[in-house]
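[09:14] KT: can someone run the structure on this one? pasting the chain below
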Amino acid sequence: MIWRLLEPIVTWAYNTSISEWIRASQWAVAVLEVFHLFGLIFLLGSVLMIALRAFGIVMKDEPVNRVVLNLAPATIGGALLMTITGTLIFSSGATRYIDSRSFQVKMVFYVLAILTQCMVYLIALRKKKNDVRLSPLWMVMGGLALLLWFGVGIAGRAIAFI
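[09:31] RB: done, structure tokens below
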């Protein structure tokens, strides 16, 4: 399986000095989790607003591409904060996480969500006119991004229980 191909990287991540420090610290994982959740809040909040606009529920007078670009700092900042803190949390328990089915599902959702979010930004940047009409493309992309990011969050929460 692909996860076995990652074993050298997982072993390296687990044995780095920072992951050893995180494991030895009483508070490091808890603090990282708090910042990880802040990233998730920024990300999901902005993605939710984009999806709600894409479906014509809120900000009906604003073009979707403008909403996407205006919320980009929150979306990208949240994704970066989640990625950095998530990488540190992962490194502290890499050998345990890599075998977790919930973690594997989370990573699949994460990769798909990142790709989808990149597509959303590419579409927003390529739109020349500020069209406020409902568009099937925006509905699909907004809904898909929202579902995938919620999938990341739900699968991440399932790691503790499954």
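[09:33] KT: thanks! The mean pLDDT is 91.
[09:34] RB: yep, looked fine to me
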